[in-house]
Amino acid sequence: MRRVFKYLPLIILALVIPFAYWVNKTEPRPETIRDFAMDTYLEITIYHQPGEAVLEEILNDFKLLESIFNRYDENSVIYNVNKNAFEKPVSIPSIFENLLQESIKLSGYTEGYFNPAIGPLVDLWRPIIKGEEDSVLPDIDLIKKAISLSKTENIIINEPDGQVSFTILGVSLDFGAVVKGYAVDRAFGILRNRGVDRAVINAGGTIGVYGSPPGRNYWRIGIQHPRKDGIIGVLNLPSTTVVSTSGDYERYNIIGGKRYHHLLNPFTGYPAEELVSVTIINKNGLFSDAVSTAVFAMGLEKGMEFLTQKSLSAIIITSDLQIHFTGEAERLFQPEL
């Protein structure tokens, strides 16, 4: 049974850590619900009473998305698509079609570094990253084959019929890089519809702050230190924002002194090197999730060039723990001393 935790201060230690403080006594006191969804710890806090129904609605929507986009669940929509879309067109609900179309657009926007068709590469590296017994590094020929399958042009969407199909056998979709950001965007819609003024949604590496913070001028969002416990700095955000962090410290395995993690470069077929953390600051969760994944794969030089060209706000941390900023990020960032 899920439990709703009321009147708790928000102190979360995850990939990104929000800190909100209730100061104004005329404000509704915060209510919080905690659970596990989309393979991550989930915590939702709203400043609204009564709040339990709103919290449950948001949590249930996260669970709904998980049931649709969990590619390892045999009852999910994406599992059915990945299994059958080469043999025949598969009917998909509008929510699936929407995320697929938006993801393909973002793949183009990021020059293919974010890739919703990366499933074959994910499957190839999954045993290594999970540290499964007797797992070995993938053969180069298998990697080349997976790269050839991991292309969005292998996907056909038939909009009038609400169907999707694949052009070759072995294509596999994976929305793990964006589904949490998509869920945060949908949660913002629920908050608007319910008349909630302010909230914080922590979905692992994706944090959404909604409305203006209670009793102060900004939300304080801590950025996880990529190589030790605690934070490396704090972002001060005045209003509704999503902060998405991609890091090599969440899911990884060290073999022969080398770190193999879940953030794959779709062009090389290997876990991306050079960067250890990328944080994107944006109003849209789906966008910030996709871009943080893409920039991590790009590396420092190309990533900084891309972010600057697109006028995006980001924090990039390299393997030597040097911090680089673009856009408004440096102004919003306060280092942890």
Automatic annotation (TrEMBL):
Name the catalysed reactions. Answer: L-threonyl-[protein] + FAD = FMN-L-threonyl-[protein] + AMP + H(+)
Keyword Membrane carried by entry? yes
> E.C. number, please?
2.7.1.180
Among InterPro entries, the record links this protein to: ApbE (IPR024932), ApbE-like_sf (IPR003374)
One Pfam assignment:
ApbE
Task: Locate the transmembrane regions by residue number.
Answer: 7-24
The cofactor(s) it depends on are:
Mg(2+); Mn(2+)
Specify the domain of life of the species encoding this protein.
Answer: Bacteria
| Keyword set, alphabetical order | FAD, Flavoprotein, Magnesium, Membrane, Metal-binding, Transferase, Transmembrane, Transmembrane helix
Provide the cofactor note recorded for this chain's UniProt entry.
Magnesium. Can also use manganese.
Q: Which family does it belong to?
A: Belongs to the ApbE family.
**How is this protein named in the record?**
FAD:protein FMN transferase
Q: What gene codes for this chain?
A: apbE
